[in-house]
Amino acid sequence: MGDLSKNFSRYEFACHCGCGFDQVDSVLVRALQTLRDRIARPIHVLSGCRCRDHNQAVGGSPKSQHLIGRAADIMAVRLKPRDLAAVALGIEEFARGGIGIYPWGVHLDVRPDGPSRRAHGED
Q1: 83 contacts: CB under 8 Å, gap ≥ 6
Q2: Which of 21, 48, 88, 102 has CB 3.0 to 4.6 Å from 15, enough for a Cys bridge?
Q3: How many CB atoms lie within 10 A of CB 47?
Q4: Contact in structure between 108 and 99 (CB atoms under 8 Å)
Q5: Which contacts of 103-106 are long-range, i.e. CB under 8 A and separated by 24 or more positions?
Q6: For residue 1, what pLDDT is reported?
Q7: pTM of the model
């Protein structure tokens, strides 16, 4: 199983550029594990931690929560992004943090001091 939680491992959150940045926030991991338990199916981390160079390369915000390990872009097999986001909204850390719905999946972050982010890239 995972080395961060029952179902999540650090390597899943590592920056995709290969720089080694993988310092994911424990609050994010706990909230994602809660989400995983509630939907009872695997969650795939599409993007977790990002170094500044990689964040810029993918067009991320200069203030992205990915830069400090507090965000993950995810998807779940056989679950529409809007349905995954609806379950995430019922988890306190995500409800006060950020939730973005996109065709490819859901952005979730656990920013501690808001304002919360709500983005809808999917109908």
Answers
A1: none
A2: 21
A3: 21
A4: yes
A5: 104/46, 104/73, 104/75, 105/44, 105/46, 105/73, 105/74, 105/75, 105/76, 105/81, 106/73, 106/74, 106/75, 106/81
A6: 74
A7: 0.92
